[in-house]
Amino acid sequence: MSNALAFVQRLLVDTTDDPVRGPYLAALEIKRRKHVYGTGSDDELVEALLKYYLKFGHLACFSSDIEAFVQQLTPDKKTEFMDKIVKSCDSVTATGTKVLGQSITIFKLRELIGNLLNLPVVELENLAAEMVEMFCKNLPLSKDLDPQENMHGEELLCLASSLLVQLFWRTGNFGYFVEAIMVLEFGLTIRRYVWQYKILLVHLYSHLGVLSLAYEWYKSLDVKNILTETVSHHILPQMLVSPLWEDLRSLLKDYLRFMDDHFRESADLTFLAYRHRNYSKVIEFVQFKERLQRSDQYLVAKVETSILQLKQKADSIEEEERVLEDLKCGGHFVELSNEIGSKSLSFNEDLSLRPWWTPTSEKNYLLGPFEGIAYCPKEDLAKEREEIVRRVIEKKSLLPRLIYLSIQSASALNKDNIEMNGSSSSDPNISKELKYLLERYAKMLGSTFSDAVDVLMRVSTDQKSSQAFGSDTVDWLHFAVFLNAWNLSSHELSLPDGNNSGHSIIHVVDTLLINHVSEKIKISDPLKFTGGQDFSTLVLLVTEPLAWHSIILQSCVRSSFPSGKKKKKGGATEHHSSQLLNALRDSTHSLYDVVEEVTKWLRKHINTPEESHVEMLVSSIRRNGEHAGGPGAVFQVLENVVPSLDASEVGGRIFRALKSWSAVDVARKVAKGNSDVLSQFLQICMSKVKSLQALKQQIAQF
Fold it and tell me: What is the mean pLDDT of residues 315-338?
């Protein structure tokens, strides 16, 4: 160790005037190892870090350079290190790129060390305002830069926005969240090419539920080629639960097109490399192709593309059957579900670009209570992620086949095939396979088949809370819908009152759907932008389990009461048909009523004057007095500092951008984006209302 230190010290002497970081980082690493092995002290490491700061503290990479070294210090020594850095730095109000860089580094280190945790809310507000003010006052440094060049101090707005999101999480005050959006929109008004701002806005708007704006900013990133594999995780999971079906279709289509093109070109490149005896490249191409084929996103995209097609055609059983025919009746996806357990998935997403509050697409700190952390390190969730994604793919892959088998099971209800005892003479293989898949589905929900049925019965009769479904409400309702389809022909299940008619479970499904849809309507409030997650669940409830249930009803009506045939009178067959007809009529009316309730709720919010949304957003960040607390400190800086800048200071381009920015315009854009999402969902619901109305009229003829 001493020899290594002596060698590094000689290098430091030789590179005194050379801005090379390597020798200094080597010296820090030696100090760190001595500290780990107990031969060095905290003071030595602090002193080495301070020297490194004085030399390279103005660089954007400084905080990432020393992160591993700082984590070796005790909390007291971290505070001491910060104090020494602050004392060594000139006033943060001074100008100059080097001083600006040092000031940004101090902000980053405070976040890294975590000493923001104990600061009062007021100090955090002032700190965010200080960052934005520093950015504005240093705009003259970027006066002569090309629009596509990075501006000096761009990171300040990211830091300020991150701090405001933390304040929102800590206090629950929505105004901080709005300010975080305003800060980034302000930055993009000045320079449209800052991808860091865009990615943050994608996640902020996604959390808000304004997916139309999130997708708009994602598209502006102009993601192409292999970036579709590494970057699409920022938007794809949110789009999968949104009503923006055309945008989702385009996103999935572009992604799968790239993958298919790459696989085709990979074969040609592999052959070319082999032909030229470049065997290392052959291995490289093959391994890369296999890695992409095992990509979790690739498997999800293939499954979700088929499910999207089924959702888009779910209002017509004839069109749904054509989609299923193209999908080979879902058999291929069952094979995928069978194989996924033994597949080794590859995760190619670049998670380092994600904001701290959502380190992976499966985790979002903002959805839970404040955990008292000021710095959220990127967690190593690889194993946990793989289990979650594997389970999702396994469940989703069964849906096309379950839908197909459910339609076939319901189609077996032709009254001419119903025996005197009320049982069906349908193909036993369909019933057998459907039950097998239901047993698998129940297992994926963490239950046995019989226990899952019991949970459904108890929740539908209020004997058990719907919290029994946990976070898998949509999956449980999928199970209920397909369970009903199976029981329509098997007649194996009975209600607690002893009713074991095949259609007795229809009422259970209707009750569950009505209760959960109505519940989400009550707690989702798009006007207040507080129901992003609940709204997504509402969309899924209507477009998946409710849609599949509607298709099954259509199949029942088509097969049990075919047009052009007269009902036979008398006997058990007529009694059974009458019971079935009543059950189908009641179920169709129930679905119609609940979807109509959703459409009325959507129209109410869509027809709310846009200015109400705008006023709510702007008022959430406007302070009443100079010394008032809460959100608004950053907004005050923008209102006060921006008008004081003139064209001679910042240049014509930046000056025009500053004059064009308006908080009201941003609020209006958010309100319109929210309305666009609701309107897309309204169109989906109106189509379902029309379909269910036609089904009601068809049943009324019998």
Answer: 93
254: how many CB neighbours lie within 10 A of its CB? Answer: 14
What amino acid occupies position 548? W
In percent, the amount of the chain with pLDDT more than 90 equals 53
Nearest to 412 by CA among 400, 421, 424: 424
DSSP annotation string for 449-465: HHHHHHHHHHHHTTSS-
pLDDT digits (tens, 9 = 90+) for 526-563: 655 555 788 999 999 999 999 999 999 999 998 876 65
Q: What is the pLDDT of residues 241-265, one digit of tens each?
A: 999 999 999 999 999 999 999 998 8
CB 145 within 8 A of CB 153: no
Measured in whole angstroms, how far is the alpha carbon of residue 207 from the centre of its chain?
Answer: 8
Q: Binning pLDDT at 50, 70 and 90, where does residue 4 land?
A: confident
Q: What pLDDT digit, counting tens, does each position of 57-101 carry? A: 888 888 888 888 888 888 888 888 888 888 877 544 445 788 888
Two tokens at 114? 């975590």
Taking phi over 0 as left and psi of -120 to 50 as alpha, with beta for the rest, 209 belongs to left
Residue given tokens 């932008």 in the structure block: 529
Q: Read off the amino acid at residue 330.
A: G
Please tell me the distance from the alpha carbon of residue 220 to that of residue 213, in angstroms, as a whole number: 11
CB 445 within 8 A of CB 452: yes
d(CA 283, CA 289): 10
Q: Rounded to an integer, what distance in angstroms lies between the CA atom of residue 422 and that of residue 489?
A: 9
Residue position matching structure tokens 């989906």? 684
C-alpha torsion sign, points 109, 111, 112, 116: positive
Token pair for 220: 């502006």
Q: Count CB neighbours of 225 within 10 A.
A: 10
Instruction: Quote the pLDDT of residue 445.
Output: 94
In 10 A of CB 80, how many CB atoms? 16
Separate counts of helices (H) and strands (E) for the chain: 31, 0
Please state, in angstroms and as integers, the Cα–Cα distance from residue 297 to each residue in 240, 306, 381, 540, following that order.
12, 14, 16, 20
Q: What is the DSSP string of 86-110?
A: HHHS--TT--SHHHHHHHHHHHHHH
- Measure the CA–CA gap between 381 and 357, rounded to whole angstroms: 14
Q: Dihedral sign for Cα 360, 366, 368, 372, please.
A: positive
At residue 145 the predicted structure's pLDDT band, cuts being 50, 70 and 90, is confident
Of the candidates 537, 530, 523, 536, which has an alpha carbon nearest to the alpha carbon of residue 470?
Answer: 537
Q: Provide the CB-side half-sphere exposure for 79 (13 A, CA).
A: 7
The DSSP symbol for 209 reads T
| φ, ψ dihedrals at 235, nearest 5° | -125, -30
Check residue 496 and give its pLDDT: 57
pTM: 0.90
Q: What is the pLDDT of residue 415?
A: 45
- Mapped onto helix, strand or coil, the DSSP state of residue 306 is helix
